[in-house]
Structures are given as C-alpha cells and as structure tokens.
Amino acid sequence: MDDSVLVVGGGIAGLAVSRALRERGVPVKVAERGGAGSGGAGSGGLAINLPGNAITALTALGVGDGLRRLGRPTGRREYRSARGRLLFAVDEDAFWGDGARPRCVRREDLLALLGDGLDVTLSAPATVSRVRPVAGGAEVHYAGGERAKHGFVVGADGVRSVVRAAVTDRAGTRSSLLSAASWRFMAPNPGVDCWTVWSGAGGAFLLIPVDDREVYGYASGVRGGPIGDTPEWLQTTFGDYPSPVRAVLENMTSVYHSPIEEVRAPRWSSGRCVLIGDAAHATAPVWAQGAALAVEDALVLAGLLADGSPWDTAGARFEQRRRDRVTHVQDATDRFSRAAGLPIWLRNPLMPVIGPRVYREAYSSLRSFELP
User: Fold this and answer.
1) Torsion over CA of 36, 40, 46 and 48, rounded to 10 degrees?
2) Cβ atoms 176, 284 nearer than 8 A
3) Nearest to 104 by CA among 186, 176, 41
4) Which of 44, 253, 271, 281 has the smallest count of CB within 10 Å of its CB?
5) 10: Cβ–Cβ under 8 A, 6 or more apart, which residues?
6) C-alpha atoms less than 13 angstroms from C-alpha of 51 in its C-beta half-sphere
7) How far apart are the first and last CA of the chain?
8) What is the mean predicted confidence (pLDDT) over 46-64?
9) Which domains does the chain have, with CATH numbers?
10) Angle at which helices 314-340 and 290-305 pack, to 10 degrees?
11) Distances (CA, A) of 293 to 41, 58, 67, 299
C-alpha cells in the first residue's frame, strides 16, 4: 500500500490541501482529471471574489504576500435597486481590517499562486472512477482500469464528487433556493469602483472590479426559477438596468452559464476518506464562501493528519471541527435567499434596515479562524 495521502481534484481545494500537507511533511499525491489546476472546465478565464476569511486562510497557508499582488481589494459594497438607487452600503475595510481586506482576483492567477513551488506527484489527466475504504486506507479505481491503495484519500473533486459515494449513499445535492442557475463573465470596467449589485424582481446583477480595466460579473435570478441558458436571458432580464449594467451586457467575455447546485451531505468522512470544499458542502455564492471554506478545510485537515494521531480518527475529528462553521454559512445563505425572493415593494424598503444587520450576522463569526 502507498502510505501517502491521495488528493482527488486539482482545483482550489485540492491545491490548498496539498500545499498544507506538504508544508507539514505529510507525503501527498494529486489526481486531477482535467490537468493541473484546472479548477473546473470552462471557468478558468473568470475571476473569484475572496471575502476576508478567505484572505485570512490563504495567508495562513503561506501565500498572503503573493495574493496581495493579485487583483484588487474590494473595500466597499453597494446594494442598489434595479433603478440604481443605493439601498445600503458596507465599509468592508473597516469590517475586516487591513490584514483581511477582501479582494477580487482572476481564478487562473489564484490557481497558479497555489500551485507555485508545490512539489508533489501530480497525475493529470487522471480520472478517478471509484474509491473504496479498506483497512488502513482506501482503494482507488481509475477510469483506465488501474487500481492503487493509499493511506488516506481526500475528496476535493467538487459538486459532482466521485469520492462522495465512498462516504455516503446519499447524493446530498440540491438546487439553490436563490436561483436554479447563474451566469458568470468578464467585461471591460464600465466605471465601477467597488463591489456593486443591482437587484430587481427578475434577478440580481453583480459587478466587482478586478482592476481598473476589467470587472468580474455574476447574474442570477432571485426566486429559484429557471434561468435561460442563452445570453438573450441576460438582455431580457437586465436590459433596462442602469448604464454600467447595460455597458457590460454589450461587452461580455468568458461568458459561462451553469446550474447552482448545493451539497448538503449528511457526513463528510468514512474510514480514511474525507470530503472537503464543494465536495462536502457546496453552497450558493451569496456570501462567496466556496474558496474560503475550502482553504479553511484544507488547513484544518492537514493539521489533523500531521498531529501524530491515528488517521482512522481524522475524518470524525475534522467534521467535529468544521461542521458548525459550515452550517452557519449554509443557514445564512438560506435566510438571504428567502429574503431575496420577497416582492420588490417589500424588499427594497426593508433592505436599508435589515441589510447591514444580515451582513454582520453572516460574517462576524467568520472573522476569527483557529488552526488545530
């Protein structure tokens, strides 16, 4: 048996846990079906919003200096109506502090940063078709028919995780309460200088500056209904929104449509198999916690695997450490998703009152993060 840790998936979660394990002297190998640092087919040209707890976790991972050279800080949030009226704003610099300033970075740049200098054995492309817990480890089956046994397997393989079947017989996936699907894209910056969302009866349209030249965009519905899979849906839904939105609609690049699927798995581990990141708990991106929770997971799990305790108990200890924090994010996501579906005549008057409070309730407990 190979006594290394096999990480299935070479996206943000997989690279983060590989890096954390390598730093702690734990032998690790990576199997990625799409090539090194693929991060999801079709999404490599997009950007990613990193809230303060993601910055804290990435700094703890040892890439904080490099991260500060990427993208642009998002020091302020503005929530606006479909007609452009400011409903409320949040000073994110003041909320998170200098050491954890949120930023928007290009996804490919973040993947490159996580993979920079990472000296691990990488099998790519390598499609894992099945994982089976066995005594003292796990047996891994590959699509080409090969088999290998490892001392531990980490499922960092996203919403459609293959490893999840080794942990639970329940798929655990569901459509988001907020919207069945979303559009993500890049565009020339139309003059937006902060995180800005416009929300109306039909949908929400978010723009975040990556730098002075380009913005990252995200658009979805707000009541869980179907979202058109052609760009005409964007024009129909947002064509009468304020001028920055209209300008972006005319100049979108790297346009990517996908369902919003959440994972509410009843368990994240079985024997020496553990799920992390989206494979364990993918959540609608209301609070931008996908990468943040994934990197936190990576740090916690790596610490547990390196602390000298039996690996047979690492999965249960990991769940004990992480379940409450993840549940908090899931609950906050559900509450916001239901509120976003309220009629506009009720939602807009309420937003200046409840919006800042909801923001604080979602993020306050995430400002602190304790490593094992």
Assistant:
1) -90
2) yes
3) 186
4) 253
5) 30, 31, 32, 34, 35, 36, 37, 38, 39, 122, 124
6) 25
7) 28
8) 98
9) 2-73+103-175+261-343 (3.50.50.60)
10) 170
11) 21, 11, 17, 10
pLDDT per residue as tens digits for the range 310-353 = 999 999 999 999 999 999 999 999 999 888 888 999 999 999 99
Residue recorded with tokens 């695997």? 305
Pick the closest to residue 241 from 192, 202, 298, 270 (CA basis): 202
At which residue do the structure tokens 């480890």 appear? 137
Q: Give pLDDT tens digits for 225-275.
A: 778 899 999 999 999 999 999 999 999 999 999 999 999 999 999 999 999
Q: Which two tokens stand for residue 266?
A: 């009843």
Q: Which residue has the tokens 């990991």?
A: 318
pTM higher than the cut 0.90: yes
Please classify residue 61 by burial: count the beta carbons closer than 10 Å to its beta carbon, then call 0-12 exposed, 13-18 middle and 19+ buried: buried
Task: Decide: helix, strand or coil at residue 81.
Answer: strand
The answer to whether 121 touches 105, Cβ cutoff 8 Å, is no
Handedness of CA 178, 154, 129, 157 (dihedral sign): positive
